[in-house]
Design goal:
There is one protein chain. The chain has 244 residues and is an alpha+beta fold. The chain has helices at 9-18, 31-35, 55-68, 118-126, 142-147, 155-158, 186-192, 224-243; strands at 22-24, 48-51, 72-75, 91-94, 101-104, 109-113, 130-131, 165-171, 177-180, 201-208, 210-211. It folds into 2 domains: 4-94, Uridine Diphospho-n-acetylenolpyruvylglucosamine Reductase, domain 2 (2-Layer Sandwich); 101-211, Uridine Diphospho-n-acetylenolpyruvylglucosamine Reductase, domain 3. Helix content is 31%, strand content 19%. A 5-stranded antiparallel beta sheet has the order 5-6-10-8-9. The chain is globular and about 70 Å long. It starts with 8 loop residues before the first helix and ends with a helix.
Length: 244
């Protein structure tokens, strides 16, 4: 494992100078907050955190990590239960500042930056009466969710989020930026539809949207008196069994 104390500080400064965003080290005020993820049991300390603001920032961060021999972790929404978006002693590439969403209502597509949350995409699509299968929890990031398949409330009619992925902007391990779709990189596009991580850093994802004028949802709750009326003998037998 690399340690922040042995990183080349001049190289870190050079990376920071080349980013539109910022680079955080352990002594910086925002470091502790930035390294925390949704699962509070995960307690890893990256050597540095690159809080990227553009795709070019991400490419520069990837090239830096490769040259320094650092493990890379990519943080979108930070909800992965295994904490894969943070690493011990490596470089965390933080996309949380990259949350812009553009909806093309005529083409029925939405293109979102890799740090967008489902609340960002849902709200933008909703303005046009459109939707795509998204996270059941709106604070989930779109990236890891989609690249892992993506279960959600609309999947019975629209399929998984990955089924509706039609394009991606991807930064490869060498720092190259690719525009990926079925025509340009069919094998890579196939892999991105639910194949998980390690194909690159998804700095942008484009989804097919569908008309969704209304959603009916919520809980159906019956009073216990109603349950007794409907199947009273069964309920009473179970109660008797528990007390005896």
């Amino acid at each position: 494992m690399s340690d922040i104390q042995v990183l080349d500080r001049s190289a870190i400064k050079d990376l920071a100078d080349r980013l539109t965003g910022t680079v955080l080290l352990a002594e910086d005020a925002d470091y502790e907050t930035a390294r925390r993820v949704h699962n509070g049991l995960i307690d890893k300390r990256p050597a540095a955190i690159a809080r990227c603001a553009t795709t070019e920032d991400v490419a520069a961060a990837v090239r830096f990590a490769t040259s320094a021999g650092l493990e890379i972790a990519v943080r979108g929404g930070g909800h992965n239960v295994a904490g894969r978006c943070v690493c011990e002693g490596g470089l965390m590439i933080d996309l949380s500042r990259m949350r812009a969403v553009h909806v093309d209502a005529d083409a029925k597509t939405a293109t979102a930056q890799g740090g967008a949350l489902w609340s960002d995409l849902n709200n933008a699509a909703h303005e046009h009466g459109l939707a795509v299968t998204g996270g059941a929890i709106s604070s989930t990031g779109i990236g890891g969710y989609t690249l892992g398949g993506g279960l959600g409330w609309l999947m019975s009619t629209q399929g998984l989020a990955a089924d509706n992925l039609v394009g991606a902007e991807l930064v490869t391990a060498t720092g190259e930026v690719l525009q990926v779709d079925d025509e340009s990189h069919p094998d890579l596009m196939w892999a991105l539809r639910g194949g998980g991580g390690n194909f690159g850093v998804a700095t942008g994802l484009t989804y097919r949207l569908r008309h969704q004028p209304m959603v009916v949802g919520g809980f159906i709750v019956h009073p216990i008196s109603g349950a007794v009326t409907c199947c009273g003998s069964t309920v009473r037998r179970r109660r008797t069994a528990r007390t005896s």
